[in-house]
Amino acid sequence: MKHFLLILSVLLNVSIWSQTPTANFIVSDNLLCSGDCITITNNSSSNTLAYSWTFTGALPSTYLGQNPGLICFNTAGTFTVSLTVTNTFGSNTATQTITVGEIPSVSITLSDTTGAPTTAGGVNNFRYVVISDTTIFPYQEAYLYAEGTPSGGTLTWYESCVFADSISGCSPCAGGDSLTVTPFYNSCYCVTYTTANGCSSTDSICIVVRFRDYVKVVLPNSFSPNEDGENDIFRILTNIDEDETFVNGFTKEGGAIAEIDMRIYDRYGKMVFRTTNPHEGWDGTFKGKKVNPATYTYYVSYRRIDGRSDEMKGNVTLIR
Predict the structure, then answer these.
(1) What is the CA angle 290-295-297, rounded to 5?
(2) Which structural domain, as residue segments, surrounds residue 129?
(3) What are the angstrom distances between the C-alpha of 299 and each of 143, 260, 269?
(4) pTM confidence score
(5) Which end of the chain is more exposed for a tag (fewer CB within 10 A), N or C?
């Protein structure tokens, strides 16, 4: 019985090796963008003795061996990957088509609608005109304009270039698309243009906000904690109010302070109040009890959200 199995095995091996090999392979992807690379899994029959690869439009263009490495396509077009396998009884060839898409171009600019209007259907349509100055004041409107080629793709905006937060633009795009932003401090914006075949390109623009020249930080010289709803709390104030509407001016705590250390002392040098919360102030009490009307000394160190740090020292009069 053992001799029979051995003879059968030998006959089978002879039968396999006496046949023409079969070429077969799998590519990791056959829809690419310029600059992409693929890997190849060779599944040709085991009776192959020689392998000859041809990669049109790729680097490398040929390879002799069983398993080629990365194959990269740097130009757009339709190309062929070909494998010819050979043994003493003949050869066999397998091919696959690779489609490589063009990388689109996209540009983003800071624009304004100061150009002369064009008339379409009796309606004035103002043209976006690129402006070179990218410096504005906090919350001033800035008009971003982006355009990608070839046409027919899709634009997506990303405020602060956070790619998890997207804003849809034109789709499909016959021309460009605009986005109006009102940054509070220095901000960058990104836009991605994606073609129908899935290839994309990204551009960005940064806007400088004149935060340092605009923001003011003050402390009042008196306050009256009599619970009448006016000037009851002694706190640091800025001209960037808490609801970002500018209507409150210096009447409420601002959003421009990132960190603070405020200490208040009575005339004997005893600290009666301390806070590290930019939105907290002194209500004129110490350990839950109202302090007497008097002049108190404050020491304040702070850091603004633009990174600038400063210190303030002075006196405040408590009035009841």
Answers:
(1) 100
(2) 105-212
(3) 42, 10, 12
(4) 0.65
(5) N
